[in-house]
């Protein structure tokens, strides 16, 4: 049996999983496996209670507005306290696009206001204007070092960070949170939200490794022969014009 095990909990894996969210989970699994790190994947659907101590990383993927409508109330009630406890204990909570939009105070669409889980100070509003679609590159800081992430975004919602929130990164190319302030995503300690998907982690193996290391409480992980992954990253950057 492996000495170390990364324990991942996918929240609403059947509802919140568009744009290669399963690919992101698969990549985490493979990169653990290649290093002899064990990998456990659990799922928590509607109505399921979660144990904040049973997992190192909680993953919340993308979803269409109707999927978010199904999950928002459950996230903000059944799972709220456990996720706040997990965040307080330094567990990684990683949310992409539709999941990211539910990390904050609320997601307003039409006349409806979906509650968020309140882990970060942000609001999202469904905009009547065009969807923000395209390749995107952002500059972030990982372990105090600058790094670039590349991905694809497709969202109708615009996200606005409140005064106590910090972005995950700054937009180098693409739309980001709202096509306006140059911010992308959110980061509060190990709670991370981003609009980048399609699939984010296979295009940014360095970020996947940072997530794994952070979730396991390690400074860094041993390197892997990443020629293919580096090519995928370069291609994604080139697609975003960076
Ligand atoms: N439903 C959300 C929006 O359109 C998120 C979509 C997604 O996860 N791609 O803004």
Describe this structure in words.
The mean pLDDT is 96. By secondary structure, the protein is an alpha/beta fold. Helices cover 28% and strands 32% of the residues. The chain is globular, with a radius of gyration of 17 Å. It has 7 helices and 14 strands. The strands form 3 sheets. Strands 2-1-3-4-14-13 form a 6-stranded mixed beta sheet, with helices on both faces. The longest helix has 13 residues, at 21-33. Glutamine is lined by residues 18-19, 62-65, 68, 97-98, 101, 154-157. Residues 18-19, 62-65, 68, 97-98, 101, 154-157 line the site of glutamine (GLN).
| Radius of gyration, whole Å | 17 Å
Relative strand content: 25-35%
Q: How many angstroms does the end-to-end distance come to?
A: 43 Å
Structural class by SSE content: alpha/beta
**Hetero groups:** glutamine
List keywords for this structure.
242 residues, alpha/beta, four-stranded mixed β-sheet, binds glutamine
